[in-house]
Amino acid sequence: MHSFFFTLFDSFVNWLIPDDMEFQSGDMPNYTTSDGSVKIQKDSEVRLKIIGTRVDATEIFCIGTTKDDFLGVINDPTTT
């Protein structure tokens, strides 16, 4: 299993997040389902599908989506 670290940006990734999730700003920015049952936040382990990459001299960038079967949160840090 490979680990990646990424930052969520509300306006940039909104279309890559499932429709039933909404961005919540504050001390701990996150995406949360309307019923509160699923939350993506810092230290969440998320299974996603990489749909694009870009490499420059010092960094690798990728865009991924959780809008597909079997993707999304696999470990919520608030429940461990």
Annotate the secondary structure layout.
Layout: H1 10-13, E1 21-24, E2 30-33, E3 39-40, E4 45-47, E5 49-55, E6 60-65, E7 72-75
Antiparallel strand pairs: 1-2, 2-3, 4-7, 5-6
Strand line-up in the sheet with most strands? 1-2-3
User: How far is the first residue's CA from the last residue's CA?
Assistant: 20 Å
- The computed structural class is mainly beta
Strand/helix succession: HEEEEEEE
CATH class: Mainly Beta
Total count of domains: 1
Mean pLDDT: 77
Largest sheet: 3 strands, antiparallel
The value of Rg in angstroms is: 13 Å
| Name given to the CATH homologous superfamily | Nucleic acid-binding proteins
Protein name: S1 motif domain-containing protein
Organism: Gossypium tomentosum (Hawaiian cotton)
Describe the fold and architecture.
The protein has a single domain, classed as Beta Barrel (OB fold (Dihydrolipoamide Acetyltransferase, E2P)), CATH 2.40.50. It contains 1 helix and 7 strands; from the N terminus they run αβββββββ. 5% of the residues lie in helices and 38% in strands. β2 and β3 form a beta hairpin. The protein has 80 residues and is mainly beta. The chain is globular and about 40 Å long. This is S1 motif domain-containing protein. It comes from Gossypium tomentosum.
